[in-house]
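name: query_chain
kind: protein
chains: 1
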Amino acid sequence: MTLQEKLSQEIKAAMLAKDSERLNTLRLLKSALGYLQIEKKTESVSDAEFVVVVQKEIKKRRDSMEQFNAGGRPELALKEAREAIILESFLPKQLTAEELEQLVKETIKEVGATSKKEMGPVIKAVQAKTVGSADGKTISSLVGKLLP
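structure:
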């Protein structure tokens, strides 16, 4: 079952459960996917593209949470946090710190990087291997720490 099919099933389940908050969040995700399909002129998106869209939507929610907290609107920040949790259910299992560190070390050897000047290619290679299962900031900081 593709992630797009899973999304459709989740929308139906939310409708039947009359869970309006979940339903609205899932519809927003479906809309974002629709825009990607229009942009790419395709009928469906791959699971990797789906994960990228979910990550962008989660990032939007986290940015909004920060803005609402800074603006003294904790109730809206809480709503954004709940939406982010709903969206996270579509992401693959996150790598542990040890697994990610091992993967970064292997990638550094594969790329042949020897200094911080070569961080870009290493980060890009690690992100390609961990689509959706590791955060970009975490990868970047870990690569910076491991490269001399």
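note: The chain has a mean pLDDT of 86.
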